[in-house]
Amino acid sequence: MPTFRYSAFRGDGSPVSGIMEADSYQDALRSLRSEGMYPRELSEAAGEPGGKLRRFFRKRVTLPELSLMTRRLSTLLGASVPVHEAVATLCEQEGQSEMKGVLSRIRSRLAEGGTLARALAGEPDVFSESYVSMVAAGEASGSLDTILERLAGFLEDQEAVRSRITTALAYPVLMSIVGSAVVLFLLAFVIPRIVVIFQQNKAALPLITIILIRTSTVLREWWWLLLLAMAGALYWYRRLMGRESFRLKRDAWLLRMPVVGRFTTRLVLSRFARILALLLSSGVPVIRALEITGDVVVNRRYRNALAVAREELAQGGSLSASLRDPALFPPLLVHMISVGEKGGDMEEMLAKAGSAFEKEFVSAVTRYMSLLEPLLVLAMGLVVGIMVIAVLLPIFELNQLIR
Residue 4's beta-bridge partner residues? Predict the structure, then answer.
């Protein structure tokens, strides 16, 4: 019998979560409702035999697909089409893709009388908590089509940023792969054939040639040990990643790095400001919006800072006063939030700040990648040049001995 993991609310509003067995998703949903619980998330448990393997090979819903579906759903709802009919129409329009299965399951949940937010919450791998919360706020306020249109615009902006970053990284990554492959090929196959000549003549070799020969020997004879060491390092890294203390130290270290720290800070701030602005403009309460934003923000230093800010807000403080750490939140951002709080347009101020940080991030990445391209070419030429010199020096000495 399949196992399902659920997260729900009791009748008094208290949260509850756990694992249950049921013949199908619908049976699990009915069982929870019969016990007086209102499901927020319900999905197949990872511990089910074969579940992980199926999820690994299953195609995921891409960001462009999700943004397109959101845009289409917003258009249908804006034309006064009922939610169930709109989802059914989108499901029929989809081809044989993962999105079609997602929409089919959402349609089944809607047919059972659930809201769209609860139906979306049953697909946590596709719809994030911020997405579901904004849909729930849109249903409560009667402006679901407007909220979905904002969501679609946000997802499209995120995809545009990702596409520009991927384009900027494509050439440096390709150069690194090709350069590494060329160097490994020379060390593993070309250098050993040339070294035989030096060994037969038993001539004294320069230091640079000795280093090259020993590097080639280690690579050819101990490659399996190198692979084991890499696999072991990866295993222990994954083990350490399971500890919250290690993740916090890693995230803090990333923020302190000279160039990567600046990239990470700008990226985190842009996501924080834009998602918080989107949640607040959708009608989500500020404390709940901060909680959702904290879950979306990957860096744990920022996540802890937002948790502290949420507690201070619950005690009657202001958002601008709670974000007082200048190492994490620049004074400009805090000042804009403060102005928004006083003027009643904090959502607009956050959206402007998020767009500014996003532009800074994209501009910085593009600029550094354009500088990295010639540096990679130079490094590749330097490595190959050193190898050529290490090979040619003994040949020149052999020619001198023959003369």
Answer: 20, 44
